[in-house]
Amino acid sequence: MISRQAEKASYLVDVNLPKKFSFFNSVEFIHVADIDATLRDKDIWEFAIAHNLIILTKDTDFYEMFLTQEHHPKVVSFKFGNFKINDLHKYFKSNWEIILNLLRNNDFIFAYENKIKAIRS
């Protein structure tokens, strides 16, 4: 069942982002907790590569992996504190299209509260 979900998905949402967040409630998103909440970062990385998924995370370890690994998935690293759900909705409503546009030509996105930076490999 997970592999079918992953086939339809485009984004792998890390456990440090809310599973119950309605923005992620579509077939485009699969949450790590639906696969195995105890997966290590390396396993998440490899799962994303194997299923051609973009990782959405707040974990800083993925940037180090991006810099040191030859093969990598695309990653969006959210660099802001804990938002209330309403504020998180506002953030995604205001910034998701910008992030999607940047993902077309870049491999790693840093999404801060007030700015977004993109890195091409």
TrEMBL record:
Domain (DUF5615): residue spans on this chain = 11-110
Alphabetical list of InterPro entries matching this protein: DUF5615
**Cross-referenced Pfam families:** DUF5615
Where does the source fall among the domains of life?
Bacteria
Q: Under which name does UniProt file this protein?
A: DUF5615 domain-containing protein
Annotated organism of origin: Marinilabilia rubra
